Amino acid sequence: PRWYDGQRAAESRQGTLTEYFNSLMGLPMKISRCPHLLNFFKVRPDDLKLPNDS
After folding, report:
1. How many CA atoms lie within 13 A of 51 on its CB side?
2. Cα(29)–Cα(39) distance, rounded to whole angstroms?
3. Where is the signal peptide (predicted)?
4. pLDDT at 4 over 80
5. Contact call for residues 51 and 6 (beta carbons, < 8 A)
């Protein structure tokens, strides 16, 4: 299915994103805990939905 290709692409980027996220969290708290960054990484209801089979 089409969503599987997207899932594979996301999984292939997981390491890069993890490294980037860890770098951000290692910055001073005024940066790593700023409202813009916290809002960007906030889990939203749509993030928890499984992809459709289309």
Report:
1. 11
2. 15
3. none
4. no
5. yes
**The token pair that represents 25 in the structure block:** 């969290």
The pair of structure tokens assigned to 41 is 């990484």
Tokens standing for 48? 């928890």
Percent of the chain with pLDDT over 90: 37
* Residues sharing a CB contact under 8 Å with residue 37, sequence separation 6 or more, in sequence order: 24, 31
pTM, two decimal places? 0.54
Is residue 51 within 8 A of residue 7, CB to CB? The reply is yes
Contact, 53 vs 1, CB < 8 A?
Answer: yes
Instruction: Summarize the confidence of residues 40-54 as an average pLDDT.
Output: 79
Rounded to whole angstroms, the Cα distance separating 53 from 20 reads: 30
